[in-house]
Amino acid sequence: MSDDKKVIFSGIQPSGFLTLGNYLGALNNWTKLQDEYNCLYCIMDLHTITVRQDPAKFRKAERELIMQYIASGLDPEQNIMYYQSHVSQHAELSWILGCYIYMGELQRMTQFKEKSQKHSDNINAGLFTYPVLMAADILLYQTDLVPVGEDQRQHLELAREVASRFNKLYGDVFKIPEAYISKVGARVMALQDPSKKMSKSDENKNNTIAIMDPPEVIMSKFKKAVTDSDNEVRYSDDKPGVSNLLNIYCAVTGSTTAEAEREFDGFGYGDFKKSVGEAVVAKLEPVQKKFMELQNNKDYIDSIIKNNTEKARHLADRTLSRVQKKIGFMPRV
Ligand code: TRP
To answer: What's the confidence (pLDDT) of residue 185?
Structure first.
């Protein structure tokens, strides 16, 4: 990593195939950052176990996520992609930071409140300290910028808070990270309920397009997507279904909203949805093809994992050892 570039850190949990929302909102934009920044894209497996996982399915999702990163266009030579559980510094720094974050701060986290309602049979301590680990993820790499969605803003704010608290006590140890707001990138909503975000954990599979869905499945999900009754393709707050489809279309084709509205002028919703589906199929085709190739190339993936993990460990350890020294831990033997 060159020292004159800013550091970007982000990551996704390995729980099932990525959606079109992950692709258009995150991955497709990340590929545009690889020349300008030093980027780390972690696979957040420590966070994933705050919710029970089936070990075999979990391992498969982990393996497939790095392949989806690469298939989406992230260059594994230019970006550091690795598994959180392979770099033990994440867990170590998380313990330390947990001693500088207050119970009250964690109790205020809206995601904790939501998740403890959703998983009321398993409100484990990890679910509660989730934002502490997330702060450790970010601060370990002296991160400048963190591309995250709205739902993670509060966690990022806490990471900034604990970083400045720590720096006040011990001098400049951590870089204070900022949110990276992308100029492009779409917020993709659920196809059957455009009031909520498209999410890979959605139980209704018609709400989401997985990036590995076969073309006929993609077409049929778009066919069923919710619109409205006035049969006019126009972007408007009171037309959330149609607006979501227009957003998706623009994100995959690069057209502006005005251009797309003109293009679909006079179209019925059936034909409009078919065009959106076709555009998405075309955009995902090379991603799917690359994924299939990677599936047959286990040695290549293993070597990527090995190289990138070593790079991440080296960087993470630089910060961790400074932190340990500042706190007054005995020098390592
Ligand atoms: N909490 C994030 C999510 O669910 C994933 C995540 C964990 C993350 N650690 C992070 C994202 C650090 C950005 C930076 O989306």
So the answer is: 64
